[in-house]
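Hey,

The postdoc asked me to send both predictions to you directly instead of through the lab channel. I've kept everything plain text so nothing gets mangled by the mail client. Protein one:
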Amino acid sequence: MKKRKACFFLLGLSLLLFGKLSLGAVRLPALIADRMVLQRDTELKIWGWADRDEKVSVHFRGKSYLTQADKEGSWSMLLPAQEAGGPFLMQINELAVRDILIGDVWLCSGQSNMETPIERLVDRFPEINESNNHMIRYFKVPTQSALDSQSEMAAGGRWYSGVASEVMNWTALAYFYAQQNYAHTGVPVGMLVSSLGGSTIESWISQDQLKEFPLLTLDRPALDSMRLAQQDIGLRDWIKLDWNDSSWPTFQVPGYWQEQHIDRKGVLYFRKSFELPTALAGRYAKLYLGTLIDSDSVFVNGHFVGTTGYMYPPRKYTIPAGILRTGHNNVTVRLRSTAGNGGFVEDKPYKLVVDDNEINLTGEWKYNVGVDLSLVKSYLPRLNNLKTVGSGLYNGMIYPIKGFAVRGVIWYQGESNTGAPQDYANYLKLLIRDWRLSLKRPQLPFLLVQLPNYMRKKENPAESGWAGVREAQLTVARQVPYTALTVNYDIGEWNDIHPLNKKDIASRLLLAARKLVYGEKLVSAGPTYERMEIKDDKITIFFTNVGGGLASQDGGTLRHFAIAGKDRKFVWANAIIKGNSVVVSQKDIPKPVAVRYAWSDNPAEANLINKERLLASPFRTDSW
């Protein structure tokens, strides 16, 4: 027995000591963890949480850095720019972060094609199973959508290496890009993937940037006011024994709200005081509260004694010994009715029973309103767009990582916006500006993946939401500095919105990065429409990015050019390369006015390239 007591004492003491140590422990975001990659050649923010005013020291690569938590327990510090290398150890107070690499970090975002699991590609690319690259790392930001900006990401994120035992945790495009980038630069690569299948671009843009789109913006004052109205103002204090309810109006029990002129829906508190002789104090007792409408929680002298979730059951609650006291006592009922006619049902018992003694609880009670649902609902007309409001994924999946330095962004999204492509260019410009502001990088490079081909081929030229999004992506790449576009309409799958050839998309992204990010002098884009000239029955199209000259991808005649006259009806056209231009005509259109190229959901047959074998981007000369 003595040994057992000693064991319990030691266990309790160790728990007490552990608890005290845990209170002072530094806590880090999931991103700052074993196997992370930090961006080279730029200041690095390291941040976390600790006790209020706690001193925090960071030791890294032979140097120490000191800071202190603020009054809310948050702390951060900036480390000077670091050269590529690793692995390294970082010591943060009592925490050790191991196997850190310094290299290039890429923020990858978008929808399902950005997060296609790598396991889907193993049959096509069996070399994945033999991956053995510990110099590339991967982190998937856990899914979290929120109306408000979140300081912490959702739980579950961790860094993985590119070795075979961990590679199945990767997404496909991130893996192939990391492999190719590392092979080209010899610098460690970190892929930070924050994406969600089916997401629209609007959900990735902050509210500050969406002000010109009323359906996407949140009425913040209305939401804040509604949240305040939803708060139960009585829950903390109105259940207390000594709460002064003398100024509260009265209510007769039994009875119903509307019969006693209470025109409210929501939560009301009802308090009844009673006196108890010394002989009954501290005794076990039973409380009978008839039947209540609708749901209730009941407190005696501030102690919770029971709850019922709906109106029908009789309320019979036990009061444990030690709660009742000599003299003044109190019963408080927290009663909720969403229909607005709550109450205490008639011809039911309302009493307290202590041994053989009964205290009658009918008659006059005091009441007050804890939650007024009518006030809550008054804000709903101003919040009727909560299902369509933007920014949810920005708040939950970009804002929490904005302090983590990156080399650039890879954006692969647009499928969910093909139903309304007319606003996509504006959204994409806002997103780029938004993220550059959030990440404090005004020249942050963006690599854009133009949508691949999808769905059945059309026999005749037709309108296309997919073509509209591709046009928007091209427009942004031409108008916004420090962006680049990859063209991919030859590697999609007509019957699968998730094409498996992510390896070639990664190759094209790397080519764009080599010029935009790494400053190499090379041709990284295919022919891009510049202008047209109409002469007689022909339209001549001029291009930029012609590289070594224009060509046909398969050596055959050019395909997927369409031409229209004033009737705006497009038909397939003849197209011939002439120098660095293409001459388009159709014998049945004597006075053409517009040309379109690769303008369809699935323009896989389009074959205009430059001699560097880079595809011409889809385009149109009209704005119909």
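Protein two:
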Amino acid sequence: MEGGHGKADRTEFTECWRTTWKTPYIMRLALSAGLGGLLFGYDTGVISGALLYIKEDFQEVNKKTWLQETIVSMAVAGAIFGAAIGGWINDRFGRKISILLADIVFFVGAIVMAAAPAPWVIIVGRILVGLGVGMASMTSPLYISEASPARIRGALVSTNGLLITGGQFLAYLINLAFTHLTGTWRWMLGIAGLPALVQFILMLSLPESPRWLYRQGKVDEARSILEKIYQPNEVEDEMQALHESVEAEKADDRATGENIFAKVKGAFSNPVVRRGLYAGITVQVAQQFVGINTVMYYSPTIVQFAGFASNKTALALSLITSGLNAIGSIVSMCFVDRYGRRRLMIISMFGIITCLVILSAVFWQASLHAPAISQIESTHFGTNMTCPAYTSVASTSSWNCMTCLKAKCAFCADGSNQYHPGACLASTTSIRGMCRGEGRTWFQNGCPSKFGFLAVVLLGLYIISYSPGMGTVPWIVNSEIYPLRYRGIGGGIAAVSNWCSNLIVSETFLTLTQALGSAGTFLLFAGFSLIGLVFIYFLVPETKGLQFEEVEKMLEDGYRPKFFRRKAADGSTKVVG
């Protein structure tokens, strides 16, 4: 984030309450812009529930894993491009115009998805929504930070992060609310256009960022806005601070080059910035490769992997994970300045690894104890409706529900007890209707399991471990780890690495579960998390309580963990190597 604003501490939140009570206009600015975070969170959460019903309406999507992954991940691909062009639009046309444009693109994308007659149209809509999300994700916090008093800036910027997790929770609530309506997924995806429309209307009546106006030479306009934000006796001091900040920024541009390629080259050729990028990119990539967005994008599907076949039940249980994620964001605000960035991330990674390993073991046990396949049950609906793979094998004695699902068929549970041997049937809409017509449960993503509730509990513990540490701290580290003149480009490079990692994880999750099983996939993420922990330990310094100049000095000397420093003759510690 431009300006390198850290997380707010408790004192800053108290001051924020006092200031906004006296000047409500400030909170109006922050909340109106912060709706961009709500859009971001809503889009992240809503697709997980909508995908369940999209698969029911389009058999092509139901049968092709890559198509499901593409529907989910194209929003991420759009966000990468949106974030990339968002920086140029911000500088060229201003923060306000960028937010308005993001709202228009997002609104159009939501309408396209809601009216989509075919899967490819949903994908187009997802790309448009992603473009809007990418632009809003970088512009909203920037606008808030530039239109807020410095003493409460961290607290107000934190509202954007809180609205992201709040948007995810809202998405799951709306998903659950629309489960009984005709056109379920269309309502889920289309309603996303409403907050974009609200933000567009609110932003029309709000001013441009005073910092951007000042840099464009519109000094009087910048002053008039500052007069609405600050007390009369503070305005002149803020104008002077703004003048000094903008002049310093222009000097930095002259030193590093205004061309983006020159800035990137300069960043990697500077040892201090390069070491900062090692740390910044490490935490952003690790944040994604612990598998968090498999939970955010596919949470109801994972719940179904655990044996809960009902879409409504899966959505209700997924609501727990999104709620815990929102709570974790609040916990992070309270503890990140007390216990430090590095310590929170390391503790978080230990919790994540433990949960993923146990979750893998639970899914492994569930697969071993999956209900058997009964030949009598399988032919009960007619031989031509039995799974083709099941009828073509010489011996079916070793087949269970999990074997059936791996053959791209579905399991129709026994009517009296779902843990008893059931039928392995071809996965079609008509056969699914026949199975449910007899009061049986249709399993297509996972098998009946007595371990299912334990898997949901572990997902909750995983979120509790992730959210206060790896969920929020990587963004704080990236706002503090770079020298001032390289903060924008350094944070941008790290953010792109985050989006690209997000795309890789979301685009491959379902394919991995087919190839490795749920147990193997979560164990793989545990392995990635362990590698991430090692890299964080060796590359990421503690920045809590340090001035930017102190961080720069630490990176200049080269960072090593405490146990890898050698003592000098005078008893002080020195970096090894």
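Summary for protein two, as requested: Residues 342 and 547 are 16 Å apart (CA to CA).

Thanks,
C.
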